[in-house]
Amino acid sequence: QVQLVESGGGSVQAGGSLRLSCAASGRTVSTYTMAWFRQASGKEREFVAAISWSGGTTSYADSVKGRFTISRDNAKNTVALQMNSLKPEDTAVYYCAAQALYGTWEHVRTWRHWGIGTLVTVSS
C-alpha cells in the first residue's frame, strides 16, 4: 500500500506564498503520476495540478495557472506545490493524490491513492 503525507499548510495573507509537499511511502513502483486537489468547505473536491511521474508533463486548473507550480523529486518520491499570489478563494484542504488510473487527471476517480490533506487558509 501507498501512504501519502502532505505538509506545508498554514495560514497566510492574500498575496502571500506557501509551499506544500507530499511525501510518498510504501509501494510506489506503480505511481507514475502525482496530483494536487483541494476542497473548500461545502464544495466538491477540485483538481489543482498534476505532473507525470515519468514524463514530466504538467497540467493546471485554470484558476491557478500562473500562480501555482507543481514539481517533483523522483529520487525522494515527493511532489511539491508552490503557491504564489494566494487569494482567499484558495482557502481549502489540499490533498495529494498518486497513481493515475484510467481517466483524465482532473477527475477524482482517476487517482488510486490519497493523502489526508493539509489545510491552507488565506485571509484578506
Largest sheet: 7 strands, mixed
Number of strands: 11
Give the structural class.
mainly beta
What is the N-to-C order of secondary-structure elements (H for helix, E for strand)? Answer: EEEEEEEEEEE
Count helical runs: 0
Helix content: under 10%
- Strand composition percent: over 45%
Unreliably modeled segments: none
- Shape annotation: globular
Mean pLDDT: 92
Radius of gyration: 13 Å
Keywords:
124 residues; globular; 7-stranded mixed sheet; 54% strand; single chain; mainly beta; 4-stranded antiparallel sheet
Walk me through this protein's architecture.
The chain is mostly beta strands and 124 residues long. It contains no helices and eleven strands. The strands form two sheets. Strands 2, 4, 5, 6, 9, 10 and 11 form a seven-stranded mixed sheet that branches. A hairpin with a 4-residue loop joins strand 7 and strand 8. It is globular and about 40 Å long. The N and C termini lie far apart (40 Å).
Write the layout of secondary structure elements.
Blueprint: E1 2-7, E2 10-13, E3 18-26, E4 33-39, E5 46-52, E6 58-60, E7 68-73, E8 78-83, E9 92-100, E10 111-114, E11 118-123
